[in-house]
Design brief:
Keywords: GTP-binding, Magnesium, Metal-binding, Nucleotide-binding, Transducer
GO molecular function: G protein-coupled receptor binding; G-protein beta/gamma-subunit complex binding; GTP binding; GTPase activity; metal ion binding
Strand content: 5-15%
InterPro entries: Gprotein_alpha_su, GproteinA_insert, P-loop_NTPase
CATH topology of the largest domain: Rossmann fold
Structural class: alpha/beta
Organism: Phanerochaete carnosa (strain HHB-10118-sp) (White-rot fungus)
Largest sheet: 3 strands, parallel
Protein name: G-alpha-domain-containing protein
Radius of gyration: 23 Å
Number of domains: 2
C-alpha cells in the first residue's frame, strides 16, 4: 500500500514536471521580456523574494534530473507555520556531566499575529531568545494591509510606546509591528533572565531594495542621514538596544548580542551560529558554576 501511494505521488510529480518543461521556453521569454518587467514594476506586483533567483536559473532547474543545490535550499524561503520543536541530545558523557544536561530543546515559532497567542506555554524556563528581525520590510504592511509612512519608529533615547490593538489606527508597517513585538518580549516577566540574541536578518534583500531606489527614510524617518544599508542597520540596532535598556532599568541588565545575517550567505551564517553555540555553552557552564 505504501509503495502504491508513493508511486502515485511520483507520477503526479512527474506530470507537473513535464508540463513545466514543455513551457520552459515560454516562461523564460515572459520573465526576460522588458515590457513584462516594466508592467510588474509599474503595478508594484509583490513577488516572493526568491522568485528572481529561481526564474534566472530555469535552464538548470527545469529538468527531469534536477537536484537542488545548497543555494537552492537556502533560497527556498518558507514561512514558519505553527510551532516546530527540535531536540539536540548531547552524546558526549563529559558534556552531559559538565552541564548537568542531557539535551537542549529549540522551539521555532511563527511570528505572525495569529501565532503569538500560542507562545506563552513555551516561555517557562527559557534561557535564550533568538529574535529574527527582517530588516528589508520597512515598506511593507503588517498583516497584509495598506501601509503608510510612520512618523517615528522610536527616538535615540526613548523608543516609541506600543500601539494598542484597539487604538483605531488603520494599519502599521511591518517594521513597526516587529519593533513592538520586540518590546513586548523584552518586558515579559517570564523572560527576564533570558539572554537576547537579535538577528538583523535578510540584509541581502535590504541591499537589493536600496539598490533598486527605495529609501528607508521615506517610511521610517530616523537619526540616520544616509540611505545606505549600513547607516540604516546601525540605527536599527540602537533602537532595539534602547528598548531593552528601558525595560531593564530596574532589573539586572541582560546581555544582548546583535548579528547582521543573511540566510543565503553560508559562510557568514556558519560563523554566526558557531559563535552563538559557544556563547550558549558558556552560559550553561556559568549556571552550574564551572566557569
Amino acid at each position: 500500500m505504501i509503495n502504491v501511494a508513493a508511486d502515485k505521488c511520483f507520477y503526479k510529480y512527474m506530470a507537473v514536471v513535464n508540463v513545466v518543461i514543455q513551457l520552459r521556453a515560454e516562461i523564460k521569454q515572459l520573465w526576460n521580456d522588458v515590457i513584462v518587467r516594466a508592467v510588474l514594476k509599474r503595478r508594484r506586483v509583490k513577488m516572493d523574494s526568491s522568485a528572481e533567483y529561481f526564474l534566472n536559473g530555469l535552464d538548470r532547474i527545469v529538468t527531469r534530473n534536477y537536484m537542488p543545490t545548497d543555494d537552492d535550499i537556502l533560497h527556498a524561503r518558507l514561512p514558519t507555520l505553527g510551532i516546530q520543536e527540535y531536540c539536540i541530545k548531547f552524546s558526549d558523557p563529559a558534556v552531559r556531566a559538565a552541564l548537568n544536561l542531557n539535551e537542549w530543546w529549540i522551539y521555532d515559532i511563527g511570528g505572525t499575529r495569529k501565532h503569538r497567542a500560542k507562545w506563552a506555554q513555551y516561555f517557562d524556563d527559557v534561557h535564550v531568545i533568538l529574535f529574527l528581525a527582517p530588516v528589508h520590510c520597512f515598506d511593507e504592511p503588517a498583516g497584509g494591509e495598506a501601509t503608510r509612512p510612520v512618523s517615528r519608529l522610536g527616538t535615540k533615547d526613548r523608543p516609541t510606546a506600543p500601539v494598542r490593538a484597539d487604538s483605531g489606527r488603520r494599519s502599521i508597517s511591518r517594521m513597526k509591528d516587529m519593533f513592538e513585538l520586540w518590546q513586548s518580549i523584552c518586558s515579559n516577566a517570564l523572560l527576564r533572565r533570558a539572554t537576547m540574541i537579535l538577528f538583523l536578518n535578510k540584509t541581502d534583500l535590504l541591499e537589493r531594495k536600496i539598490a533598486a531606489g527605495k529609501d528607508p527614510r521615506v517610511h521610517i524617518p530616523g537619526h540616520y542621514n544616509s540611505r545606505d544599508a549600513d547607516s540604516y542597520l546601525s540605527w536599527l540596532e540602537k533602537q532595539f538596544r534602547a528598548a531593552l535598556r528601558i525595560v531593564d532599568q530596574t532589573e539586572s541588565r541582560r546581555t544582548c548580542f546583535v548579528y547582521r545575517t543573511s540566510a543565503v550567505d553560508i559562510t557568514r551564517t556558519k560563523v554566526t551560529l558557531t559563535s552563538i553555540q559557544t556563547m550558549v555553552l558558556e552560559k550553561s557552564m556559568r549556571n552550574v558554576q564551572l566557569i
